[in-house]
Design goal:
- By secondary structure, this protein is of the alpha+beta class.
- 32% of the residues lie in helices and 30% in strands.
- It has a seven-stranded antiparallel β-sheet, with no helix packed on it. Strands 10-19-12-13-14-15 form a six-stranded antiparallel β-sheet, with no helix packed on it.
- A hairpin with a 5-residue loop joins strand 8 and strand 9.
- The longest helix is centred in the N-terminal third of the chain and has 112 residues.
- The protein is elongated.
- It starts with a helix and ends with a strand.
Amino acid sequence: MSIETEALLQEAKASIEAAQNYRSELQHRVQGLDLARQQIKGSATQTRAVLVQHFQELQGTVSRLLEERLAALLLEVDAIEQDSVRPLDDCQKLIEQGVSTADELLREGEAALRCGVGEQDDKLGSFTKKALQIQLDSLPEVPSLAEVSCLSAQLDDSLLPAVKGRICTHGSVASHPPVQIDELVERPGGILVRWCKVDDDFAAQDYRLQYRRSASSHFEDAYVGQDSEYLVLHLDPHTEYLFRVCARGDGRWEWSPWSIPQTACTTLAPHEWSPGSEEYSLSSRRDIALRNDSPLCGAGVLYSQAPTYCCRQTLTFKIISAGQPDKRDSVGVCVDRRNGQDSLQRDQAVCITTSGAVFVNGKEMTNQLPAISTGSAVTFDMEVVNVFPVNINNNEGASVKLRVTIGSGSREVVFDWLLEQVCEGLFFGCSFTHPGWKVFVF
């Protein structure tokens, strides 16, 4: 085969490979178009169903309210009519009684006039006496038309235009939500959800984050506030969850459309305190520890159940309640668990005391953080800076330098922590001498 033929063959193979890649990319884009079309059609179907259900419920509610209001007004008309007619009925009864009495008196008077001369004096005397007793000059008072009720319906003509205006502007259809989930990061026993605005013209006042299991149909509120990220805790590892977020515009009360749901799961076991300590009581999830009223001689370090803290993660100690401070108190991270210790102020550990002092491998640093009290949150962030070989006692090993950041309040301390060996995970722990300290770790 000549060189020219070989070159043409290689060029043909390259063109075939390029055509295959081109076709593969086009097919991939077709799949993307199919997903986009499914999203459009699926969201349109769901939006139609939501609109129909909402307006049907609204129509039924408005109709029911109008019927209830009409019935109440008709009852009010009946009550006013009865109350207004009752005095007239009473007056009519008095008049009818008077007419009857007058008719009887007239008959007696006419009979007395027709009597003979011998009886006429007695009859006329009896008639005159009876007429004086009846008080023929006393008449019941009949109210004038101005004094009696004249019912009418008072209807606000501005209601219909106002309702019509609200109905004509009620509801809207949005093609793009103003906020979308930007990142889902797994954390021990949880997912860190970050979101961002995608509509620059939308001024967000609050955000609302919801989640649910993939197998469930009911979303639960996880967070409502002004932050653009939130750590959703107490999630089961290796279980898929759906997350969505919406926003509320500045000065508005209604929420925006939901973002596109995003799926995530955590493979990291949750942070848990080690059970079995007589000095500490743990919550059902073992993420909250309370220092008991045990004798001071029994004070020790409460460690995590496993080395679940890894670099490039944030470990947070939230102080729920505080007791009496002691110079041996500490919360921090360590390489191993050592029984018989009363504090993390030791080798192979970094910690902060309740007074704000920072200890690295048992030595106190010059920099100090604010004192820890109820409501304080202490965070630990670590990242590997360097791994290099060292020679210790003629044995080849590895030394690891970690960049540690401890934050408390609005301040933080940054330093390098040198470990003798590489650790896949680190333990965390706490030690409190006096009772009353309650700490939540996540």
